[in-house]
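FORM 7B: Structural annotation worksheet

SECTION A. Query
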Amino acid sequence: MIELKNVSKVYDGKKEAVKNLNMEINKGEIFGFLGPNGAGKTTTLRMITGILAPTEGDILVNGINVRNEPLKAKKSFTYVPDHPDIFNSITGIDYLNFIADIYEVPVEKRQNKIEKLTNEFEIYDDLGKMINSYSHGMKQKLLISGALLPEPEIFILDEPIGGLDPRSARILKDLMREHCNQG
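SECTION B. Predicted structure
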């Protein structure tokens, strides 16, 4: 569950990006933000993930305050940012193993999961290549595979469909629905 209590974000002491936001996202829900550019969608997601600190208010992830206990809170979610700017000077498999190490995914489990996800997203054969050689869509598929790899309780996705081909977008939507159906 994600809960925001009176969350605000002000930039440079004057530009209000988010104002007094209160919301609750319950277990098993898919929740999306809709709005024009500059409405505060990405800022809100970055505050939920702890990348940005709110100017005011509290953010709880599974009852854990993101500001007070960031590492504990972050163990229950993964995040796919709106731009796939990731480690360009390593290979795709190195990136996925790095993510698996952070989330303590056992080696036996990670190998099967990496193979399954990257075959579904049709990037398995490219995992030995440097990420800087990947297209935008391939980087997005790699980020999504990395986010799904540890099977977190919560996926936080910022414009995850951007750069994906229709088939991969459908796979992601199906995986999200399956995850929600499991609670």
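SECTION C. Observations
The chain is about 35% helix and 20% strand. The radius of gyration is 17 Å.

SECTION D. Sign-off
Analyst initials: ____
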